[in-house]
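Researcher: I'm preparing a figure for a lab meeting and need a structural model of a single chain. I don't have an experimental structure, so a prediction will have to do for now. The sequence is pasted below. Please return the structure as tokens so I can convert it later.
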Amino acid sequence: MDGYNFVSLAGIFVLLGIAWVLSANRRNMNWRVIGWGVGLQFLVGAFIFVVPAGARAFLIVNDVVVKILESAGKGAYFVFGRLALGPGQVSESGEESIGFILAFQAFPTIIFFSSMLAVLYHIGVMPRLIKVFAKVFTRLMRVSGAESLATASNIFVGVESNLTIKPYLARLTPSELCTVLTAGMATVASNVLALYVLTLQKQFPTIAGHLVSASLLSAPAALIMSKILLPETGTPETLGLHVEPYYERDGGLFEAIINGSNAGVRMIAGIVALLVAVLGLVALVNLVLSNAGNFVNPLLGAKGQWSLDGLFGYLFYPLTLVLGVPTDDAGVVSRIVGERLIVTEVAAYGHLGAAMQQGLLAHPRSAVIAAYALCGFAHIASMAIFVGSVCALAPQCTRNIGPVAVRALVAANLACLMTACVAGTFFNENSILLGGS
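Model: Understood. Here is the structure written out token by token.
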């Protein structure tokens, strides 16, 4: 381990300290959740980054995801032609790619992955996987079965995870509700994970494996941070119990494929609407800030253009240093990680890919840490989506969900940063897991 690895290790405890300072009840800490949560993160991190068998498994997962993405591309190419070819790809008929186009190359994979997940649900694979992870969380951390199940579900799916605990949603304690929301925002869904892979794959060949490991690491981190920020003061109905996932089974395999693909289309529509609206509003805010800066800077004798990403760069700079990012890259990474809170992780990953392509990151560890830190729906738009989902399924939660949701958003951001610290702790510049990044 070098100096930066130790900085990342210390960063884990700094983030835990920040969460404790922001806690609603500092004297009521669930040390079992904290201890086992940190232990599980170290265990997964060491297995992936240090153990040779873990590294080989990581590369196998990366290759599997890449092959699945290639399969997804076949359908997109049939519909969109060469527009669906990624940078450097050549079709069987000899057509060459015209470059990366988000709408025609990345978005179609969401439809494919949504259908594939629906099939895995229908044949019973996904419920079994979710139950395995839920049992681990319930048994080791002594949290409720409902919040364990929701957290485990979020490793694989997004807002749909709330459906798995639909019978219990209305009776969750505030602490359980915070955990459910935090887990949703601290992780990413498998179907949109493909979007990030396509965004970064050219600059970061093993990004698929890193994003899968980030999803695994963020689940226990979400439990830790949510239970520190809003400790349990009640008695959960499913405390210590193993809960069966609730889901509405499709009538047949083709119905599952149809419903899954339709869900993917709806998700794409939501992502497109968010990107168009949020990025447009950010550009408007930047215009206002720029004009304000042009007026104020001469009065103060200051230089530089005012912008939203510049503001986030200043706010997140100390946290970026805590993650173990070298000072040479901390300014760039802090802007990218900070802007995720507003412009969503989709745009932030795009900016990370652009920064890598332009050679703005001098150290390989900076790209790895940033990729892990961004792997979560920890932004304001996502908070609204998850809150809306919970309230739609359990209207009884509407009255008191506002303050809980804000704490969950803070907890989710801290969880993502904690996952990045774990990656930074075990990072090795000579590791085969970099794959040329």
